[in-house]
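Researcher: We plan to redesign the surface later, but first we want a full-length starting point. Tokens attached.
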């Protein structure tokens, strides 16, 4: 077994999207600025790269957020994906989001905010939106499509390729990677992490970056942080003693194409598609109606994931609560797989949207497909210091869209630079009346 360093300049915990991106960019920033070497960065994971949500995600990269400050973060993320799309597995196919008239004002605000930060998108309303959709997918059912947003820089990343590519970036940049190392706690003195306690000994670090994904709650507890907090909103509203971390389980699945062509009319890989129809029921082709569920669906081409031509997508996640069994994670945990109704529901949304998906239920891939995430009190990421020398990246399950955070963070951690894009996501927002939460959607992700 390779010996683990006893002390290091930067210790990154977790080899998921954020740990890998942060370690890679820290190493590059150290070299670029002449302030150190890539080998000054140590990345550890209790299992290995992609062992958490990063290894099972759908990989969609889009910017449809009603939380404005996220738009600038996305621009940086797409820059990172586009810095090496081949090795990172990124397909810049764009993203198309469709809503009913009740979301038109939201789409207008999103469109304006995206373009203000250099994230190019087009908005189509009414007949223009329907025509735009028909140009891409001639068999699209545009009856309820009142507003359509087309984000050009967006796309998706193949999950396996992204993990492999990020590991390669870290290796090339000189990062020390050690897997099978489990953190069990933090030695704290006067608000500083003196040592990170692992099953392979204690590691001292000048700076610790915690990128623990769904396991964030444990790290939060080890740091001595409270389980609940009070929230203050911009309109003066308050909510007391809210759970700091809430687990949600994600519902996703795959449908084999089996000869059905899923290309645009001009024979391209289609944009990632996202449709929320807040006033439209979901009804299967056999006539079964889902009375308690909203129409919310997304899909992207996913041959790389499935191993055959197919699509992958999902719907609104389901809230579990403040406690969840995290291990084993993902597809290996029978507690958190997509529900039995999911396949019927998902295929019903596809069949409603496009003629070509009629009858696709029989091509739904029956296999475990699940994963859980730890969400913050306002479902928006937290990027902030949690001890004098420890920084936490808790993305509230928006991770593939946040690959750029590691790059922004490297500037902050190496050069001490204030990075304005990260400021709105600090913990102080909850006490200072800047808690997010103003969104007109049935989904916590929008
Ligand atoms: C089913 C599913 C679909 C998704 N689809 C999308 C999508 O389409 N687009 C999108 O943007 N996002 C999506 N997400 C969200 C995205 O995958 C996550 O937000 C992101 O991958 C989280 O990255 P992370 O680095 O924070 O955490 P993770 O990938 O969970 O990595 C955390 C790592 O920390 C390690 N770790 C934890 N505790 C310890 C410890 N004590 N000691 C050592 N190591 C530890 C774990 O082993 C793990 O490898 C999806 C998530 C799921 C579950």
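Model: Full-length starting sequence:
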């Amino acid at each position: 077994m390779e010996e683990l360093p006893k002390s290091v300049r930067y210790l990154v915990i977790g080899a998921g999207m954020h740990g890998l991106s942060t370690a890679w960019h820290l190493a590059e920033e150290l070299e670029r600025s002449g302030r150190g070497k890539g080998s000054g960065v140590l990345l550890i994971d209790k299992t290995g790269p992609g062992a958490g949500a990063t290894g099972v995600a759908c990989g969609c990269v889009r910017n449809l957020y009603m939380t404005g400050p996220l738009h600038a973060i996305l621009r940086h993320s797409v820059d990172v994906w586009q810095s090496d799309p081949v090795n990172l597995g990124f397909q810049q196919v764009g993203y198309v989001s469709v809503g009913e008239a009740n979301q038109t004002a939201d789409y207008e605000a999103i469109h304006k905010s995206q373009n203000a930060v250099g994230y190019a998108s087009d908005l189509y309303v009414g007949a223009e939106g329907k025509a735009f959709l028909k140009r891409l997918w001639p068999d699209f059912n545009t009856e309820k499509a009142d507003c359509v947003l087309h984000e050009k820089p967006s796309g998706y990343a193949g999950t396996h390729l992204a993990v492999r590519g990020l590991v390669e970036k870290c290796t090339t940049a000189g990062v020390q990677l050690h897997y099978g190392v489990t953190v069990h706690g933090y030695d704290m003195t006067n608000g500083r992490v003196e040592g990170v306690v692992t099953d392979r000994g204690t590691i001292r670090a000048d700076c610790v970056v915690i990128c623990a994904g769904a396991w964030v709650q444990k790290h939060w507890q080890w740091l001595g942080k409270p389980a609940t907090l009070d929230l203050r909103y911009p309109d003066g509203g308050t909510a007391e003693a809210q759970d700091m971390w809430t687990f949600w389980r994600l519902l996703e699945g795959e449908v084999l194409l089996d000869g059905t062509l899923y290309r645009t009319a001009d024979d391209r890989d289609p944009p990632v598609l996202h449709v929320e129809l807040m006033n439209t029921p979901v009804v299967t082709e056999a006539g079964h109606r889902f009375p308690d569920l909203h129409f919310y669906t997304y899909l992207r081409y996913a041959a790389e994931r499935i191993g055959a031509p197919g699509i992958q997508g999902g719907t609104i996640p389901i809230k579990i609560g403040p406690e969840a069994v995290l291990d084993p994670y993902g597809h290996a945990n029978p507690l958190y797989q997509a529900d039995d109704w999911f396949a019927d529901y998902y295929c019903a949304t596809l069949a409603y949207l496009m003629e070509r998906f009629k009858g696709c239920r029989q091509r739904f891939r029956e296999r475990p497909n699940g994963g859980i995430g730890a969400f913050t009190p306002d479902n928006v990421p937290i990027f902030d210091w949690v001890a004098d020398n420890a920084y936490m990246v808790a993305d509230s399950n928006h991770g593939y869209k946040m690959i750029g955070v590691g790059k922004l963070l490297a500037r902050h951690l190496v050069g001490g630079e204030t990075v304005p894009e990260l400021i709105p996501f600090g913990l102080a927002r909850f006490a200072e009346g800047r808690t997010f939460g103003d969104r007109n959607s049935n989904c916590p992700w929008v």
